[in-house]
Amino acid sequence: MSGHLTSQKIVRNVGLPLVNQFLAQGYALVRILSALKIKSSTYYNWRHWQPSRQEKRRESLKPYILDVWKTFKFYGYRRIAAYSHLNNDCPKISEYMTLKLMRELGIRSRMQKRYRKPKTVVTVDQKPNLIRHLHDLSGVWQTDITYIQLTNHRWVYLATVLDPEKRKVLGYKIGDTMTAELATSALQMALDKHRKPLIIHSDMGSQYTSAEFNIKCQNYGLKHSYSLKGHPYDNGRMEAFHSILKREEVYLKAYQTLTEVQAAIGWYINFYNRNRISNVA
């Protein structure tokens, strides 16, 4: 039924202006309708048609959906619908209606292909993984470094410290070299602002096996846990955050300088911690 109504709307929106165009050129209405094979009753129905209350509401929702999508182009229909229910000043829209209206508007969640990062090699012996069998991560922080490419194809690096239980970024540092100091600075930022954990978990990268990073852990009484080589899922929630960051921010932008990256990542982390709608596909 809805498909039939949609096709009627398309025919009306095309047919009525065409008839009016020929009328403006001086042709007789009877000849126009005969040439276009349109019944006179159909034409007069078009002229006197008025949108229903449902149709008016649908049309009124489109500008709102478009505004939300322009602000958060990485939001699909589920999160746009969820956003409408979380905002008291906005109309409440179902997922089904949001999906239909987004299709009519010709918009969809905007995702981009990722770029290839350089490969790294672990040269030290495996160190203990203290969280692999833990079900309660409330005393654990996770940390990792990810790559971000500038328009000149040079790399900058983001070190992040995450609370995997609360899914909040606690500290981060961005630099143009991937060093132990970068990793340690992100940890120090988290320690300065939050109650220290029992365990800090990382991969086996040289920044995290360095003396500088481990002395910092020892000074604060932190146990250091390491992912198994070739098992990034041991640090899964940290990896997931960086993946979300790339899809929703990094891959949608073209950064020319380190300063631009710092501003953009700072904005996104604040958004992620405070406003982002999560637990929605």
TrEMBL record:
GO molecular function: nucleic acid binding
UniProt entry tagged with the keyword Disulfide bond: no
Boundaries of every Integrase catalytic domain copy: 124-281
InterPro entries, sorted: HTH-like_dom, Integrase_cat-core, RNaseH-like_sf, RNaseH_sf, Transpos_IS3, Transposase_IS3/IS150/IS904
Keywords tagged on the record: Plasmid
GO biological process, one term: DNA integration
Role, per record: Involved in the transposition of the insertion sequence.
PANTHER family the UniProt entry points to: TRANSPOSASE INSF FOR INSERTION SEQUENCE IS3B-RELATED, TRANSPOSASE INSO FOR INSERTION SEQUENCE ELEMENT IS911B-RELATED
Name listed for the protein in its UniProt record: IS3 family transposase
Source organism: Leuconostoc pseudomesenteroides
Taxonomic path: Bacteria, Bacillati, Bacillota, Bacilli, Lactobacillales
